[in-house]
């Protein structure tokens, strides 16, 4: 067996996976209440073409997030979010410039940006890159975020703060602080099944913003019923019509679907 050399497996390219995840999520059709190839779901100010421009604008920043994580790898973990935040803000500005001010991917920038930054941090510390290691690094960086940014506010001035005070919902911050526990808990043979599993359990702040806690519970029960009784593409199209009629969009679950896909590929 001469001539065969053992090769070290290449580490996952997290920025490339993050970009691919956004395309997979966008192209998944039908996608109840969300923008896909067929329609704009419950979004009157968005369509497929707008999302393609948004993805093109924000994905170059994924490499910059990773490079920043590498550059700051040996700074204390408590400083990491402060160092990442300016890059996240700049990425959001690039998105808004490409979409004429429409928020297409703010949640995706937050979640996928954290994964890319964490990947750079692990590489800078010469640590093995795995899904577990990435999620642990994100959790460590985000430790205390819910307490600082939600629980510590006596007067709610943002939707996230109001939802925390009214319902105890921690949103994207809580999921990041948990190391994306929910995104990792939804196995499925297809992206559609993973999305349904997420919608069935995710306390999606987007749904609460649009339809109150009743809107959230409606979508959760609908997804749970489909998972229990069986579903096909026609059932998902019917769910899309029902969510559009109620102006409901599970955008938080769409963001977590992208995270779940990246972690699954790693």
List keywords for this structure.
about 270 residues; mainly alpha; disordered N terminus; CitG; nucleotide-binding
The count of helical stretches stands at: 13
* Computed structural class: mainly alpha
**Global geometry:** globular
What is the N-to-C order of secondary-structure elements (H for helix, E for strand)?
HHHHHHHHHHHHH
Q: Percent range for helical residues? A: 55-70%
What about the largest sheet? none
Give the overall pLDDT as a whole number: 94
* Total strands: 0
Give the termini separation. 30 Å
Radius of gyration: 19 Å
Q: List the uncertain runs.
A: 1-6
Strand content bin:
under 5%
Family: Belongs to the CitG/MdcB family.
Pfam family, one: CitG
GO biological process, one term: prosthetic group biosynthetic process
Catalytic activity: 3'-dephospho-CoA + ATP = 2'-(5''-triphospho-alpha-D-ribosyl)-3'-dephospho-CoA + adenine
Molecular structure report:
- This is Probable 2-(5''-triphosphoribosyl)-3'-dephosphocoenzyme-A synthase.
- Belongs to the CitG/MdcB family.
- Keywords: ATP-binding, Nucleotide-binding, Transferase.
- There is one protein chain.
- The protein is mainly alpha-helical and 266 residues long.
- It has 13 helices and no strands.
- Helix 2 (48-58) packs across helix 4 (80-99) and helix 3 packs parallel to helix 5 (106-124).
- The longest helix has 25 residues, at 205-229.
- The protein is globular.
- It starts with 13 loop residues before the first helix and ends with a helix.
């Amino acid at each position: 067996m001469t001539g065969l050399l053992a090769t070290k497996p290449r580490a996952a390219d997290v920025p490339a996976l993050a970009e691919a995840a956004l395309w997979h999520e966008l192209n998944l059709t039908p996608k109840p209440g969300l923008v896909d190839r067929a329609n704009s779901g419950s979004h009157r100010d968005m369509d497929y073409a707008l999302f393609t421009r948004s993805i093109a604008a924000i994905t170059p920043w994924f490499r910059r997030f990773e490079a920043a994580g590498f550059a700051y790898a040996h700074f204390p973990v408590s400083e990491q979010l402060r160092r990442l935040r300016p890059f996240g803000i700049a990425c959001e500005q690039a998105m808004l410039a490409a979409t004429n001010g429409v928020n297409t991917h703010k949640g995706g920038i937050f979640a996928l940006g954290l994964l890319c930054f964490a990947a750079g941090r692990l590489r800078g510390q010469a640590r093995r890159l795995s899904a577990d290691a990435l999620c642990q690094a994100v959790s460590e960086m985000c430790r205390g975020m819910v307490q600082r940014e939600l629980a510590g506010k006596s007067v709610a001035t943002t939707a996230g703060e109001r939802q925390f005070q009214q319902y105890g919902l921690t949103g994207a911050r809580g999921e990041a602080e948990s190391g994306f526990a929910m995104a990792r808990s939804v196995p499925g043979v297809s992206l559609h099944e993973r999305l349904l599993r997420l919608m069935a359990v995710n306390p999606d702040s987007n749904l609460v913003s649009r339809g109150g806690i009743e809107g959230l519970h409606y979508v959760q029960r609908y997804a749970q019923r489909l998972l229990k009784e069986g579903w096909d593409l026609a059932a998902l199209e019917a769910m899309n019509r029902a969510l559009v009629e109620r102006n409901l969009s599970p955008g938080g679950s769409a963001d977590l679907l992208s995270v779940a896909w990246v972690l699954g590929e790693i």
